[in-house]
Amino acid sequence: MHSLKGVKRRNTMILYVLLIVMAIVWVVPILWIILTSFRGEGGAFVNYFWPKTYTFHNYIQLFTNSQYPFGRWFLNTLFVSIVSGLISTALVLAMAYSLSRLKFKLKGPFLKVALVLNMFPGFMAMFAVYYILKAAGLTQSLFALILVYVSGAGLAFYIQKGFFDTIPYSLDESAMLDGATKWQIFTKITLPLSKPIIVFTALTAFTGPWMDFIFAQVIMGDNVKNYTVAIGLYSMMTKETANSLFMSFAAGAVIIAIPITILFIVLQRFYVSGVTSGSVKG
Amino acid sequence: MFKRKKHSTFETHIPLTKLFKKADGVTKASYVVMGAANIANKQYLKGFVFLLLEVTWIAWLLTAGLKAYYNMVTLGTRAQGLVYDKKIGISVLKAGDNSMLLLLWGMLAVIITILFVLLYRASLASARKIWELKQAGDPLPTLREDLGSLLDEKLHVTLMAIPMTGVLFFTILPLIYMIAIAFTSYDHNHLPPKNLFSWVGFANFSNVISGQMAHTFFPVLAWTLIWAVAATVTSFFFGVILAMMINAKGIKGKKVFRTIFILTMAIPAFISLLIMNNMFADGGLVNTMLINSGLIKTSLPFFTNPLFAKFTIIIVNLWIGIPATMLVTTGILQNQSEEQIEAAEIDGANKFQIFKSITFPQIVFVMAPSLIQQFIGNVNNFNVIYLLTGGGPTNSNYYGAGSTDLLITWLYNLTLNTADYNLASVIGILIFILSATFSLVAYKKISNSGMEA
Hints:
A: 282 residues, MetI-like fold, 13 helices, disordered C terminus, B: mainly alpha, 2% strand
């Protein structure tokens, strides 16, 4: 009896040690970037962990350097993400609702085609998208960026469709008996029941523009004043500038990581149900 | 009692070929003059819209459409060149045909015609509806009712119109354009507007599979597959173990541990990967720490030795991948039924047996679809390679790729660095075939095993 308890206690101790070691491995890079953003001396590479001097200079430089207008990038990204977030949410919900709750002839074939389209690597079409935008005279503008982000909405409906699939049909039927049209059912019954998925859709659409540095880069080219934070920060890390701007990069990284981290922590329960509900797509 | 008429969505209709034989004159006329039946039956707006669109299409076809098709076949005949100008007495540069734009307009023309065919069918369906209603002696729907149906039985049309337009112009059009490029000679020697390119059939495919490019393609493909399997399996396996550890009885502060790992998921990938790139560099934090502590004398070649770089990538990917699996697995573990485990305990099963025969299969079952998606995602994992190693170290045996490049980053290099758009398209198509075959087989396997269970 006593030895069994001892073994258990020892196992628990081993688990604690393992977990703490792992937690340290996961925290160190984050802690390091935060420390770097306040570091007063050195460049991209230093051979110690804790900074010798602390300063806000890197943050101040981020907002005053006219060659890398972070403040402007931040506002650009905010604008793009709010507008494209709102439109995408509406479109994704409309698609998901149609494909989940409405019956029409081409639904089955459409779902199959969507699956196929989603399997082509996105980069393959990226340059064609660029030429289409160029032909339409839209490149290097924030509008083009919004257009591209929003146009992806038509094929990103799986998680939301999975959610709508779970709402019982009996609600729709009783409303239909009362003479409600499908539009009324969608807006007055389904949507009010779908607040969590609406929040999830809106917030994921909102965070997209903060992370995309490839598509945005291709569209914006060298138009630095229309950059988003992701391209902007990435452009600070070229071979010539990486050393001198690394600490400002760290500061920028901290600034954009904070809101996204908060959003993510709020959203994590949706994330789980999203991944596991993907299994019932038809 | 019921205000609403009963609508069955999939009524059986008379086939359009039969209708032509049986129907009256105006319906017959609708086969040539779209909207004729609607106009004859006082559905003026609908009828005239059909008619107008038909006239527009024909006008477009005659003025621009046919030319676009012709140009798509030739891809341009006049190269850019010097033309002697008599007025000023010297040769001047004269713009030629731009094959790239001609191909793009050609593709657009194909889409316009497909849309017109769909519209034509819709107009015939509308004529048929009128004929059927008249046969049955029912009243025809008024404009008001027609518009009202867009919010009711035809709501899907209203809801899907805008998103589908986006998909059409920014997914389908670019995709068929890029697929077409795979069959042309659009490479660094044939760059418009300076040069023309032309159709070459399957030449690019044979170049990649058995020609010069095969020396790059097959090694890159092999590494892509090794990477995708290793990344998916290791992240999954260690993620499950981490979740089990945090969930183990007697561990306090479960929430704190979980939050620490989840935090790392929230940081945008381009930030965390660039930081990792800095930390593992030759003069980076990891190497200097190891040297300072006396464990090694010279820097470890984390990114400069091909084999070492591959291991580094897979290990760093764990940092990103483990928390995601942990988060989902935790959800599954918390919903696990206690009874089944207690029953197994009573039967004398030990912890390992319970894990092996009950918990683990359950996790695999729930996570199988997301594992397939993760595998596909890893095949296309641009960020990790691009940000961590940039494809390096360089490999002189490869064309346009480094030792750690995946197919997807090679595709990117082929378009951005070497401007071999045709090869890039071939690679894109091959990636698609790879992902589609894999997921088809895998999904089939899951649904089969799901039925047995």
